[in-house]
Amino acid sequence: MNVSITHPANFPTGDRRTTLVLLPVRRPSTVPGVLLRAAQILQANGLWQGDYLPDPLDREVCVPHFLRPMSVIAALNCAATGDPRRTSQLGDVAMGVVALSIDGGPYWTDFRSLQAHVEAWNDEAGRTSDEAVALLELLATTSERAA
After folding, report:
1. Is 43 in contact with 133 (CB distance < 8 Å)?
2. How far apart are alpha carbons 130 and 5 in whole angstroms?
């Protein structure tokens, strides 16, 4: 019996053992992918109004950030990077797509105006996570429906 002891699933005695292999989570690489992933995150965690997430400085809540309710912008960041507080170029482009589709977009189209427009929409009284999920899914599938 030829058993290689350098194989990670083998003991020196020749016995086999199971090996846990953690593969990284695939991040979306397109804007529609980020929008769909953000919709999934909001559907699972819920919509948060007023800030990116509840207790962002971890003073009272010990739940990981990616499992907390979050705003639309935080969900887009989380979908693109895995962390609702970390930004990326892809997440920023997706946020711009969302901003320009809400009420015809803001008057100014600089990054801060786009972000403020999405935040204002997110924080409207009575806004539900179902409305945010529906918007993100609609924007993600617009090109499919147009074809």
Report:
1. yes
2. 54
Spatial distance between the Cα atoms of 26 and 24, rounded to a whole number of angstroms: 6
d(CA 141, CA 119): 22
C-alpha to C-alpha distances, 54 to 40, 72, 81, 103, nearest whole angstrom:
19, 13, 19, 27
Dist. CA 4–CA 17, nearest whole Å: 13
Dist CA 27 CA 80 (whole Å): 6
Specify the pLDDT at position 43.
Answer: 95
pLDDT digits (tens, 9 = 90+) for 30-68: 999 999 999 999 999 999 998 888 877 778 878 788 888
Rounded to the nearest integer, the mean pLDDT of the chain is 85
How far apart, in Å, are the Cα atoms of 77 and each of 30, 41, 85, 146? 13, 11, 7, 27
Q: What is the distance between the alpha carbons of residues 10 and 146, in angstroms, rounded to a whole number?
A: 54
Using 50, 70 and 90 to split pLDDT, how confident is the model at 16?
A: low
Q: Is 16 helix (H, G, I), strand (E, B) or coil?
A: strand
